[in-house]
Amino acid sequence: MMRYKEEKEAKKEAFRKYLESSGVVDTVTKALVALYEQDEKPSSALEFIQQKLGGPSLCEYEKLQAEMSDLQLKYNELLATHQVTVKELEEVKVSHTMAATNTTSAANTTASEIANGDVPKDDG
After folding, report:
1. pLDDT one-digit tens code per residue, 106-118
2. Has residue 47 been placed in a domain?
3. In a domain? residue 124
């Protein structure tokens, strides 16, 4: 049981050092001090701290969410249009391949008829 507590304390200490060395503790402390030094406390302490940490305000966040939603709808529409266009292109390729095959087949039939002396007669 004692070893578990020691391991837990060691993890806490390592995490604290990590936060200090990466500047998190200092940055959060500065944001809290700025909040403390406000003569008139903001209505939302959390939003104040988020702004001090460089995050968007609640209003900005909601605008970004709406913009993202609009862009997702546009993306879905464009993707659907793209898929239809790709399908149409494949259909054109297939029909073109079939037409080319039929033309080649007809040309080969005429050539073999001529080779065999079965020249089509002009009835005119």
Report:
1. 666 666 666 676 6
2. yes
3. no
| Residue at 123 is within a domain | no
Could you please report the per-residue DSSP string of the chain?
-HHHHHHHHHHHHHHHHHHHHTTHHHHHHHHHHHHHT-SS--S-HHHHHHHHTTPPPHHHHHHHHHHHHHHHHHHHHHHHHHHHHHHHHHHHHHHHHHHHHHHHHHHHHHHHHHHTT-PPP---
**What pLDDT score does 113 carry?**
67
**For the chain, what is the domain count?**
2
Q: Are residues 1 and 46 in the same domain?
A: yes
Quote the mean pLDDT of the chain. Answer: 88
Residue that is last in its domain, among 27, 55, 83: 55
Residues 62 and 48 in one domain: no
Query: Which residues, 6+ apart, have CB-to-CB distance to 38 below 8 Å?
Result: 48
* pLDDT category of residue 22 using cuts at 50, 70 and 90: very high
